[in-house]
């Protein structure tokens, strides 16, 4: 395993300064959400810190890894938005030597969410959305909802992400829609 200093150095060298600042914000927010939801704070902080490690990997490298490392070939029809979570775990294991399956699953699910979400998955998914550096219409409401009830935060984000994608006439990853049908529906 790598030391924390080595992980920080690798993370910093693999992304822009802005992206690195975002990862620090997600890490701190994940730690706070872990405390509120009685989850391991150090583990949440680490998962949040590395969640976007592969965000700036090249399209070429992604395509090569998808083709040769046993990933679903349908991923070739998508883009870096979808890849950096699902395929990003390959680079995180390879470069950061992180093997904790709960952390890797949280990274895998951090963009699209999933039908099944563990507490850590929800923490990283929401910390990514509401960290202090985020500013979009609705972020204050998202923060309020998430700090009061993590599951409701997940539903809020999924509903708003779908609205945003449809508004742009962008393609919806089926898992995002499946997740919305579980977490986004108000009874
Ligand atoms: O990596 P970040 O920017 O910090 O945040 P993220 O990993 O949550 O990625 C957010 C982006 O991913 C946002 O622009 C919307 C996009 N996204 C989420 N679900 C889908 C999606 N894009 C497409 N095309 N389809 C999806 O289902
Ligand atoms: Fe991301
Ligand atoms: Fe997200
Ligand atoms: Fe992020």
UniProtKB/TrEMBL annotation:
A Pfam family this chain is assigned to: HD
Which CDD domains is this protein grouped with? HDc
Query: Would the keyword ATP-binding be found if you checked this record's keyword annotation?
Result: no
Q: Which residues form the HD domain?
A: 19-133
SUPFAM superfamilies per the UniProt record, alphabetical: HD-domain/PDEase-like
Gene3D superfamilies found in the cross-reference section: Hypothetical protein af1432 (1.10.3210.10)
Any idea which UniProt keywords this protein has? Hydrolase, Iron, Metal-binding, Nucleotide-binding
Report a single Gene Ontology molecular function: metal ion binding
Its Enzyme Commission number? 3.6.1.41
Q: Which reaction does it catalyse?
A: P(1),P(4)-bis(5'-adenosyl) tetraphosphate + H2O = 2 ADP + 2 H(+)
Its name, as the record gives it, is bis(5'-nucleosyl)-tetraphosphatase (symmetrical)
Q: Which organism is it from?
A: Lactobacillus kimbladii
């Amino acid at each position: 395993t790598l030391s924390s200093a080595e992980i920080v150095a690798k993370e910093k060298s693999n992304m822009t300064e802005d992206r690195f600042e975002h990862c620090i914000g997600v890490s701190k927010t994940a730690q706070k959400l872990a405390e509120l939801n009685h989850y391991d704070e150090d583990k949440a902080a680490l998962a949040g810190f590395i969640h976007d490690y592969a965000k700036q990997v090249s399209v070429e490298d992604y395509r090569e890894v998808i083709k040769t490392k046993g990933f679903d070939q349908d991923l070739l029809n998508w883009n870096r938005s979808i890849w950096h979570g699902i395929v990003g775990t390959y680079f995180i294991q390879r470069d950061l030597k992180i093997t904790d399956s709960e952390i890797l699953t949280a990274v895998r699910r951090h963009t699209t969410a999933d039908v099944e979400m563990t507490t850590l998955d929800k923490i990283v998914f929401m910390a990514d959305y509401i960290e202090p550096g985020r500013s979009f219409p609705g972020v204050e409401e998202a923060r309020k909802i998430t700090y009061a009830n993590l599951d409701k935060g997940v539903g809020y984000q999924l509903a708003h992400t779908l609205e945003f994608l449809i508004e742009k006439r962008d393609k919806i990853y089926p898992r995002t829609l499946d997740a919305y049908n579980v977490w986004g529906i108000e009874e």
